[in-house]
Amino acid sequence: MEMKTDFLVIGSGIGGLSFALKVCELGDVVIVTKKQDSESNTNYAQGGIASVLAKDDAFKFHIEDTLKAGDGLCNPEVVRKVVEAGPECIHELIRIGTHFTRKKDEENEFDLGLEGGHSKNRVVHAADLTGKEVENSLLSAVKSKPNIKILEDHISIDLITQHHLKDYRSKPGEKIQCWGAYVLDKKNNQVIACLSKITLLATGGAGQVYIHTTNPSIATGDGLAMAYQAGAEVGNLEFIQFHPTTLYHEKSDSFLISEAVRGEGGILRLQNGETFMEKYHPQKELAPRDVVARAIDHELKKRGDPCVFLDITHLDQKFIKLRFPHIYGKCLSLGLDITREWIPVVPAAHYTCGGVVTDIEGRTGIENLYACGEVACTGMHGANRLASNSLLEAVAFAHFAADSAKRKLAGLKDFSLPPIPAWSLEGVFDQQEWVIISHNREWIEKFMWDYVGIVRSNRRLKQAKRRIDILLEEITDFYKINPVTYDVVELRNLATVAKLIIECALQRKESRGLHYNIDYPHKDDRNWHKDTILKSEEI
Hints:
The chain is an alpha/beta fold. The protein is 36% helix and 16% strand. Strands 1, 2, 5, 6, 7, 8 and 15 form a 7-stranded mixed sheet that branches.
């Protein structure tokens, strides 16, 4: 089966939906999403969107905070452009129907929150479910556009390039062209060749590569794996942000306890009630996330405790219920009243700071392929993302990429695609082999947590690489001779992303930002003030 469109958007978070709304003015858009249209990392974002809106704030302060958190690896030009785009991004979201929380006594003023690493109150939020509010307003706007089609329960398998053409032989120096993607319809088990003039990757992160994560189950690094396999550069994947505070409860999957809880005065305590963050950073609970996560990890390993506690019982009960209704309700459903009891918390994989390398317009190294949001490495976050800069970056780069893609489309008016072969579904699925291989998903998640987690070592990284190389070879061999399925694609992508994270971590011979290696405990600006870049040698 074949489908043609002007723009193909892979992913339905804030980046993909914002891009679709921008470009639909000039052509037809198809959005591919793995589950229901609102299932994305955006929908799980509690904190908010950082932007300069307060009278006592300024772009220069937000830029300084971002560069400081990024630990020397941010691209200053990108940071400046994104930060300066922030206020207009917020107002555009409001124009399409997003409702942000306002001050109680001053309806026209935003209730701006303070989060770790920020020097000013600048986090715009919708109570403690900002992502859901933004996602719903964008979806409503997208569904009102007749030329935007959403394919739910579809997973992209491969980006379509000239390498898929029959009898193709690459030429030295030839640039790879993207002409869309092969997409699997999960319900009908049918592969569609979705051909497009412009393709945007907005697939989000890869948190599911770790056993403890705040990400939804669909966050398996699909766009990252596909782009790498197609020949795009990826970079800085050693910088995985572990959120310091996710709920530790046997009946809950790594539920996020927002950064904003600490921003409003939450105090971290050990089981005996002692505070400990003052030993690790002068900003205590408001230190950057990597510092807080490593501090908790160190205390847990030192004491053998299963968790630490976040205490907000000293705050006004009415304020807690009003400011954090989602967190309060979730905890209460588990028998925990956070107005009276401490919240048990542990770190979990939260955000992928690296990704598919793009320029300042969101263009990748593959012609006609763009990327934005968590799947991309734009230069905004460097070695550590500043809290609530993720949604800001996603919507800003969606705008930058849309403007660039519109110009690109104008130059493709007379462009015609060559005949693209249909995806082969020949062969019989080997269920017995799959049962053996499929168990490796949980194995990947666990060994990545143990070997490539918050604190790393050369020995653990090398062991991890040996193991993932063997597993990836087995998965690839299975993939080549069996009809493709949803689960097989996800497992292939998880294994590929795990390999890329490990290889980036092995490259960096220092500790910086989110990457901490006990064999190189110090920062080395002389030799490592640079990005780690990987590119497939098989293209």
